[in-house]
Design goal:
Blueprint: H1 2-17, H2 19-39, E1 44-53, H3 58-61, H4 71-81, H5 85-95, H6 104-117, E2 119-123, E3 132-141, H7 144-201, H8 213-253, H9 263-281, H10 287-317, H11 324-363, H12 368-408, E4 413-418, H13 431-456, H14 463-470, H15 484-517
Antiparallel strand pairs: 1-3, 1-4, 2-3
Helix pairs in contact: 1-13, 2-13, 2-15, 5-6, 5-7, 7-12, 8-10, 8-11, 9-10, 13-15
Length: about 525
């Protein structure tokens, strides 16, 4: 501990020996610093505060009807890009600051200075709520008028970018959508014309709705098979009715169990007797026998026909009361037979039509699939253009509604809470603090210079220091005794030193008073 105290005392003694250097250095630093502080130009700070409120009643009303844009994100983006170079150049031009610049370099310096001095910060409020943004814009300049202009222009640009940015974007979007709608309208018209011409060119060969060629061919085959089966069934019913009618006619020919004799029966009987006589004489292969048998067969057929005619005449006349029941059945069978004949005729027409369609489809096996493929391609092109056209129309209406909302300025409210005012007093520089710092710096520089000199020009001012440096034991020391003239000189030197130090403090106090009064 004693060593440390001795070391500190040695440093202090070295500084005291070089005290005049310290005093001169302190005076030089203080005078120079105070002069610089005194000639510093006054700085005027102008600020303004604005509130941007995005919570309006129009937003929920227009939800899903307009283009959704997050206003909070937009405000944050604009606040970050407000101090971009184009905006700063516009501020400098409108404020007239660019007239003081004499070249591109000075203009660049001016823009850099504006970027450093203009501050845009978000401020927290006591009643912090969602969608409420409070911003402060400030600028420091040596000219209060210029500072006020800059802040006012920054506010104007902020409002224009905030309220007019969406409007410009919407206008450009509307122009783009209008051009796209017109283009797709032309495309849709061309697709419609191509589809119409294709349908007119292939009239009668167009596929049914929802069916391709294979489906149509299968359907035609199924229809043909169904009508063929139905025709077969009706023909079978017709044949059955015909057989029943024949049986009814046979019953009509008979009386009460007796067969009615016709003139042709006598001829047949005579020929049968002749045939028996020939068989006695000849074999079955004899030509006369064969001719006679053929003649008998023809007469029997003729007899059957005559019997049918006879029975029909009896049924029509109704003269025989005993066959009245058979006549009624016969009439019913005739009616049903006529119906079945009509059904057969209708089914044959249908069958011929289905067969014609089937053959036409088979004949166009290489044409219709190509037509269907072209039709599918044309319909697909038309549907794509129509869907795009409808989507563009809907989005254009949304953009137009968004533009109307922007024009009413109800989507976002921009309100200036504290407008920029021209300051009467400068806000800087803080000369009192700077002068105090200059005084401290001057005293520190003087002490530092004295300490440095004491280290550069060392002096032994104690026996212990001499002994530690030389390693030789020091037996004693002799104190210096000043003569009365030397003592007076020493005292005058001390008084002068204290006076110079006091004058330095008085000069500092005077400058403080002058600054307080405002003479500077």
């Amino acid at each position: 501990m004693n060593d440390i105290i001795e070391l500190v005392l040695g440093y202090l003694r070295g500084i005291w020996r070089n005290r005049w250097y310290a005093m001169v250095c302190a005076w030089l630093v203080c005078v120079l610093g105070w002069t610089v502080v005194s000639i510093l130009p006054d700085q005027y700070e102008v600020s303004a505060r604005v509130i941007v409120d995005t919570q309006t009643i129009l937003r929920p009303l227009l939800r899903d009807l307009t283009v959704e844009v997050d206003p909070d994100t937009q405000i944050a983006l604009i606040s970050r890009t407000l101090l971009s170079r184009p905006n700063l150049e516009e501020i400098a031009r409108l404020a007239g600051l660019d007239t003081q610049a004499k070249g591109p370099n000075e203009i660049a310096q001016l823009i850099d200075e504006l970027e450093k001095k203009i501050n845009l910060v978000g401020m927290a409020t006591g009643r912090q709520r969602e969608n409420l943004n409070l911003y402060s814009i400030s600028y420091i300049s040596d000219n209060p008028k210029n500072a006020t202009k800059v802040v006012q222009l920054a506010l104007t640009i902020f409002e224009k970018k905030l309220l007019g940015g969406n409007r410009l974007d919407t206008e450009s979007a509307l122009r783009f959508l209008d051009s796209q709608v017109a283009e797709y309208e032309d495309r849709l018209s061309e697709a419609e014309n191509r589809l119409k011409k294709f349908k007119l060119r292939n009239m009668g060969r167009m596929p049914s709705e929802g069916q391709n060629y294979n489906a149509r061919l299968q359907q035609a085959a199924a229809d043909l098979s169904a009508v063929r089966l139905e025709l077969t069934q009706v023909e079978n019913r017709r044949n059955s009715l015909q057989q029943q009618i024949n049986e009814a006619l046979q019953q009509q020919i008979k009386g009460d169990g007796e067969v009615v004799a016709l003139p042709i029966d006598q001829r047949i009987q005579t020929l049968e007797q002749n045939l028996d006589e020939l068989l006695i004489k000849f074999t079955d292969k004899h030509p006369d026998v064969n001719i006679l048998r053929l003649t008998i067969a023809d007469l029997k057929k003729q007899r059957e026909q005559e019997r049918l005619k006879y029975a029909a005449s009896l049924a029509e006349s109704g003269a025989n009361a005993r066959s009245q029941g058979v006549n009624t059945v016969y009439q019913q069978l005739k009616v049903r037979l006529a119906e079945e004949e009509a059904n057969i005729a209708s089914l044959k027409v249908r069958y011929d039509e289905y067969m014609k369609r089937y053959k036409e489809l088979q004949a166009q096996i290489s044409t219709l699939p190509q037509i269907e493929a072209e039709l599918v391609a044309l319909n697909r092109d038309y549907e794509v253009n129509r869907q795009k056209f409808d989507q563009l129309l809907a989005r254009r209406e949304s953009a137009r509604l968004s533009q109307e909302a922007e024009i009413t300025k109800q989507e976002t409210r921009f309100r200036v809470v504290d407008p920029p005012r021209m300051p009467n007093k400068p806000s800087g520089p803080r000369r009192l603090l700077l002068m105090t710092l200059v005084l401290v710096a001057g005293l520190g520089a003087g002490v530092g210079l004295a300490f440095l000199l004491s280290q550069l020009w060392p002096t032994f001012d104690s026996r212990r220091g001499l002994m530690e440096s030389t390693g030789i034991p020091v037996l004693g020391s002799v104190g210096m005794v000043l003569s009365p003239p030397a003592l007076r000189r020493e005292r005058r030197s001390t008084v002068a030193y204290v006076s110079f130090g006091g004058m330095l403090l008085v000069a500092y106090a005077g400058l403080i008073v002058v600054e307080r009064v405002g003479l500077l």
